[in-house]
Recover the amino acids of this structure.
């Protein structure tokens, strides 16, 4: 018997702008499913954005998006679990953010809400192919089930803002700087490791029977929690420190190499 579930980050792990999802990776993951392993995605992407990847990989199992705040079936689109921000959390975060000149947007049911448009926001919306709605005050969305707030802008500004939010809220909010140019604000009971645990419960998979692969700081807790935690060789130092092993970089189809090795050793699925 072998590992029953493979959880994969997307960007920087199985694809990037420079390195699209490779045929080798698709074939390796298809082979893993053929021997009975479950392949899933645990990503910071919006659900609708992640669906492009789940379709390419022909995944049928539930997937976790929004840094683990949302789990849904990629075929029926039924939401299986969702942990939105509370009205108070949104208000508290905006009280801090309103003191500076920030680009702020809220994610709700696959749409983006802002209190003003800007070149940065318009570029974000176009890049992510998502609808944008302008409201007078983002606090008005407090009871609507907002999944996360995103603070965007120049790298140094976002870095300073991330530090301020972490100092202010500590464990009261989940603060994730997933990219140099934006910071995410989520409910504290979220995170990729939380989503992976929930997926295991839903799918009746034990912790020790999981493989998790990622490349960023936000993947580190998931990598550490999994039965076999794998970090990409060109990933963050925090992710690598949390890993049981380090895979070749994305450009070398590192995920495919790990899966092929596990398959060759009879360490996946029911073999």
């Amino acid at each position: 018997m072998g590992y029953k579930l493979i959880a994969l980050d997307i960007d920087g792990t199985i694809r990037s702008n420079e390195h699209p999802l490779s045929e080798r990776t698709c074939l390796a993951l298809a082979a893993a499913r053929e021997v009975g392993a479950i392949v899933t995605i645990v990503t910071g992407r919006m659900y609708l954005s992640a669906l492009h990847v789940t379709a390419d990989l022909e995944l049928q199992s539930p997937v976790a998006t929004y840094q683990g705040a949302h789990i849904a079936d990629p075929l029926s689109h039924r939401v299986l679990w969702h942990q939105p921000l509370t009205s108070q959390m949104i208000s508290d975060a905006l009280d801090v953010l309103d003191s500076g000149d920030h680009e702020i947007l809220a994610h709700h049911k696959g749409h983006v809400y802002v209190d003003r448009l800007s070149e940065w926001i318009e570029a974000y919306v176009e890049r992510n192919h998502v609808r944008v709605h302008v409201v007078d005050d983002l606090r008005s969305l407090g009871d609507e089930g907002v999944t996360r707030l995103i603070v965007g802008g120049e790298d140094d500004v976002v870095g300073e803002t991330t530090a301020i939010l972490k100092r202010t809220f500590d464990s009261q909010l989940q603060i994730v700087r997933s990219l140099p140019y934006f910071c995410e604000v989520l409910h504290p009971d979220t995170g990729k490791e939380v989503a992976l645990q929930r997926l295991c419960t839903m799918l009746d998979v034990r912790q020790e029977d999981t493989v998790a692969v990622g490349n960023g700081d936000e993947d580190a807790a998931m990598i550490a929690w999994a039965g076999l935690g794998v970090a990409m060789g060109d990933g963050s130092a925090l992710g690598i420190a949390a890993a049981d092993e380090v895979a070749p970089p994305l450009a070398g189809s590192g995920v495919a190499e790990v899966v092929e090795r596990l398959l060759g050793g009879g360490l996946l699925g029911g073999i």
